[in-house]
Amino acid sequence: MPTTVDVLVIGAGPAGLVAAAELARHGVRAAVVGGPPGAAHEVRLHSRTLELLDAAGLDLRHTGRQYGEVRVGDYAVGLDRGETPYPYMLVVPDAEFGARLNVPIVDAPVESLSDGPLGAVVRAGGEEFLARYVIDTAGTWLAARFGVRSEESGVLGHYRAGRVFFAGDAAHRSPDTGGLGLNLAVQDAMNLSWKLAYVCRGLASDSLLHTYHAERRVVAAEALRGERLLRGPLRRVLRLGGVRDRVGGLFSQLGTHYRHTAFSRSHREHGARAAGDRVPDAGGLYRLLRSPGYLLVGAGATAVGLLRQVGEVYTGLVRPYLLGGGDASVPAIEDSRGDLRRRMRIGDGDLALVRPDGYLAFRLPGTVAALLPNLLGAWVVTRSATPELTPTHSVLG
Ligand SMILES: Cc1cc2nc3c(=O)[nH]c(=O)nc-3n(C[C@H](O)[C@H](O)[C@H](O)COP(=O)(O)OP(=O)(O)OC[C@H]3O[C@@H](n4cnc5c(N)ncnc54)[C@H](O)[C@@H]3O)c2cc1C
Question: Where's the FAD-binding domain (predicted)?
Answer without folding.
Answer: 5-65, 155-225
